[in-house]
C-alpha cells in the first residue's frame, strides 16, 4: 500500500541538427519525488534531496556561472508535471529516470494507483509494469479499459502483475497514422484480504505499520448542516453543478439522519432553523429549496459557520440527536469572505472557539479564487478535511464522490495503542471518525526487544456498543518473505513511516500558534525529508553532474493562491493563471537555450520588478497608493517623454484592503504633441487637434510623426517613440461579474530604451543602475523565503526573497521571476518617498525627488 514508481525514458537525437529533447511526467500531488537522474552523452546527473536553502545556494552558485536551469512552479487538478528539456547536438543519447513514492489511500473500498501515459509520439519500446505484493493476499484487482486491450494480467494469492505493452501498430490512432493513441489514465484499483476487523499489523526493517479498515458494522446516524455559498461568484456552472450534486446527496439521507441547509451571501438564510429527520418529505422540500437559489451578493463565511455550529449545539443540548451519532458541517464555497468578518485568522479563531469536540468541519473549495490554505486549516483544526473541487463539467461528480467518502460513518473515537516499551515515534493514533470504505493507518519504530511479536490494541465506539480489538504480528516473518520477492519494496515500512510523519508535521506546521513552534516543526520536517530523500515544500532536489559543475533544481510546488512576499497578493485573471501545473527545468547544455530578458515592469497590485543587468539581479517592490492617484513611471525632460499610470481599485476590499491596479497608462511625447492613452476599454491616440480611438478587438498598427502604436488583439499594445524607446502595455481581463476583481493593465519597459541624463521616475531612475550588494542571506521567519541585507544608495535594507510574475509570454498564468523584495513601498531603493512620484495629470512631467 506504499507505491514506489520509476519512470524511465531513453531518447536519441537522430536528426541532423541540434534540438531540445524533453522529458515530461505527470505525478499525483500526494506523491513525493525521491530522485531524478539524467545521462547526456555519458555525462551523468545525480539527484540528492537537501534543505531548500542549501540547495538554492548551491544552485545559485551554478547559475552565476551560467551552468543552471530556471524554475517555474504551479498546480493543476490532482497532478504536478515534472518537465525537463535538454538542448543537444545530433547523435546525442539521453536517458532520464524519475522516482517518486506515495501512500495508497483507501477510498470507497479500493486502493487506486494511477499513471498518466502521455508519450506524445509513437514509442518503439513502450512498456508499463505494475507489481503488487500483499502479505495477506489480494482480494480483487480491476484494470483499466481506457487504453485498449493490450494488457497482460497475472494474479496469484499474494501478488499481481499488470503489463501494458502495445506494439507500434497498436499505438497508432489509425492504421496509417503517425501520431499516438496513447493519451490517457492508467488506473489500477485493488483491495486486500482482511482476516478480522482488528486490522493488519506489518513489521519490517525496524518499523511497523498498522492498517485498520473494519467492515460489516452498522452505520452511525449522522447530523449534517450543509453550508452553501450562494454569492455572485457562484453564478453559472458552479451553482448548477452544486445544485445537481445536492439533489443526489439529499437522496442518500436516511430517516435516522438529521440535516439542515444554510445558504449565504452577504446575508445568511436557513432552510430550517432546526435539524430535521431525513424523511422523504423533508428531502423533497429541501431539494425544491436548493433549486430556487439565485446567486448574488457578497460572501459572509463567518456568520454562516457560526449559525451552523449554533444549530448543532442547540440540537445536542435539547437531546434531539442520538448521543452515538456523528455531527458534521459541510462547507461549500468558491471565494474569500467579503462581508462581515473578513480577516481569515479571526474567522478561524471564532470557529475553533465555538466548535465542540464531537463536531467536524469539512471544507470544499470550488475553483481557484478560494483561499484553499484557509479552508484546509479551518477543517484540520476542527477534525475534518478539505478538498478542492475543480469548476468544470464534472464538479457535481466531484462533490458527490467526496460526500460518498463521509456518508457512512462506522466508528467514533478510535484509538490504536501499543505497549509503551515496544514502539516509539508513533504517528497519529487517535482518530475522531472512521468512514466505511476508508482506512486508518498508524506507523512507528519498533524498539529492540526479546519478544518476536508486536501487539496492538484498538478501542472505538460503534453504533450499539464500545468495542476493543487486538492484533499481533511476527517481527521477523515479513522481512523474510519480502527478501524472496523479486519486485517487493523492502524499505516500505520505513518510508511509509517517514511519509506519514512528514505529512502530519506539515499539517501541524500550518496550525502552529507561534513562530518558535513553527521553526521547531520546520527543522523536524527538513531533517526527515533529507534523511528519507523526499522533495517536500521545505526541501529541494539538487541534480548535479559528476563534477558538480552543472546543476538543476527541483522544488515542491505550492498552492497557487499566494503572493511572493509580505503584503503581495496575486489577483486572478479570467482563467486563474495557476490552473495548470508546470514544474519546468530548462537546462542549458552545450549550446544551451537562451531565455528572454526580464524587463523593468509594473503589473498586478501594482508590483514593480526592476532588472539590474550589471548586478545580474532583479529587485521588486509594491506601491501602496490610493485609487485615482497618478504615478509617474518615466519622466525625461531631455527627450520630452513622459509615461504615467492612473490607479483604480478592486470592487470590494480583500482582507480589509482595497487592492489597486493600473486602469490607464499614458505615453506623452511632447516634441510632437502626441499622446497615447491606453485603458481597459481601448486605446486613444491624439495630437492635440485630432484623436483616433481603437478597440482591443482588432490587431492594428498606426504611425503618426515619430510615434507608432502596434495593437495585438485582446492582448497588448506596444508604443514606440523615434524607434529607440518602447513601452508595452498588457491587458488583463477578468470575468465581468466577478465580485472583487476588475480589468487592469500591466506595463513593461525595456532596459535598452535610450533616455537623456535627465530621466527620472519610478522606473526611469534605474536607467542609471545603482550599485547594489546583497549579503547576509539567511532563513526568514518563513523558512521558504530567505531574508538578506541589501546595501543601495547609502541605505541598508532588509529584503525578502520571493517570486513575482512576468505576464508577457503567458498573459493568464505568467512566468515566475525570482527577486529581492523591498518592503515599505520601495523605501530606500527608490529615490525619496513614493508619494513624491504622484503627479496631477496623465501628461504631467515629474519634479524629481
Automatic annotation (TrEMBL):
<dbReference type="GO" id="GO:0005576">
    <property type="term" value="C:extracellular region"/>
</dbReference>
<dbReference type="Pfam" id="PF00092">
    <property type="entry name" value="VWA"/>
</dbReference>
<keyword id="KW-0964">Secreted</keyword>
<keyword id="KW-0722">Serine protease inhibitor</keyword>
<keyword id="KW-0732">Signal</keyword>
<feature type="domain" description="VIT">
    <location>
        <begin position="1"/>
        <end position="102"/>
    </location>
</feature>
<dbReference type="InterPro" id="IPR002035">
    <property type="entry name" value="VWF_A"/>
</dbReference>
<keyword id="KW-0646">Protease inhibitor</keyword>
<keyword id="KW-0325">Glycoprotein</keyword>
<dbReference type="InterPro" id="IPR050934">
    <property type="entry name" value="ITIH"/>
</dbReference>
<protein>
    <submittedName>
        <fullName>Inter-alpha-trypsin inhibitor heavy chain 2</fullName>
    </submittedName>
</protein>
<dbReference type="InterPro" id="IPR010600">
    <property type="entry name" value="ITI_HC_C"/>
</dbReference>
<comment type="similarity">
    <text>Belongs to the ITIH family.</text>
</comment>
<dbReference type="GO" id="GO:0004867">
    <property type="term" value="F:serine-type endopeptidase inhibitor activity"/>
</dbReference>
<dbReference type="Pfam" id="PF08487">
    <property type="entry name" value="VIT"/>
</dbReference>
<dbReference type="GO" id="GO:0030212">
    <property type="term" value="P:hyaluronan metabolic process"/>
</dbReference>
<feature type="domain" description="VWFA">
    <location>
        <begin position="223"/>
        <end position="406"/>
    </location>
</feature>
<dbReference type="Pfam" id="PF06668">
    <property type="entry name" value="ITI_HC_C"/>
</dbReference>
<dbReference type="InterPro" id="IPR036465">
    <property type="entry name" value="vWFA_dom_sf"/>
</dbReference>
<dbReference type="InterPro" id="IPR013694">
    <property type="entry name" value="VIT"/>
</dbReference>
